[in-house]
Amino acid sequence: MPNVVVVDRLDVLVIVDNVTDSLSSNPAGVVSEWAGLLASGRIRMVTGSSTCCAHHGLSLLISARTGDKTETLLFDAGGESATFLRNAGILGIDFSSISDVVLSHGHWDHAGGLTSAIEQIAKARGNGNVNCYVHPDMFAQRGGTLPSGIVRPMEPVPNPDQLTQAGATVVSSREPQLLGNGAFYVSGEIPRITPYETGLPGHVRKSDDGTTWEPDPLLMDERFVSVHVKDKGQFIFSACSHAGIINVLNHARAIFPDVPLYGLMGGLHLSGATERIIPDTVADLQRFDLKLLAPGHCTGWRALSAMEQVFKNKVAPLAVGKQFTL
Do the beta carbons of residue 36 and residue 46 sit within 8 Å? Predict the structure, then answer.
């Protein structure tokens, strides 16, 4: 079992998500965008120009506090620089506090704002030393197969040379990592053991010679982040769950068998072609006795509705600008 630090407090700020929602009620420890901005004095009234934009993608600022020491990790950077930078400015992100950046997997909606994020962190830190953790298989050209059989290419993620030029020290590995002086565990490749979690249908990648498209439904480059919160347990960040959220939770429990699973946050990719596995997924989620479920991004409204019916006030969906404190 990796020697992770048990943190006293975990704070998460949603910089980019598919949804904006400052009207719905929230459980204790969760603050909506408008309430947070007004309480902090960052805005005096709610206006279109002073609030965040929703955009297909995900970016989370994760801060773990132990005693008087806080470690801060940027988990993904949304689908484009403009949205990331706009929302980060409105939310008052302190880029100098971010020591590490993790790209969860090689898709544009998580990496489109990555070079701009690294540039801002490097500038704020003043030394250009920004560790950016990636998997070597993230950088192939990818696409999705349409019903017609035509492949719709995806925008490639920034390559290691582009990330380095932006100010990153690129750490490319298939192995698990401990970041933030042990506060953040970044998984290695996730074992695929759940029969119905078969990946992303129709997902392909370019062959090494660049001439053909090859099936790539499993996206083995995807990783999750785990934080052990004192008196609660493991909190799991799974950006898209192409591995399947049940596979993710099973793997997290296997790595830390003595630490209960407390909650999860991120995209569960139960929309589109994967809506068929919503009933099985919701049924199996009950086995983990989670206290907080914060799904968003690619989860889809059908899955959110099904989860709310079962887990009720344990569900707090993501939205831009939302703050979570554990």
Answer: no
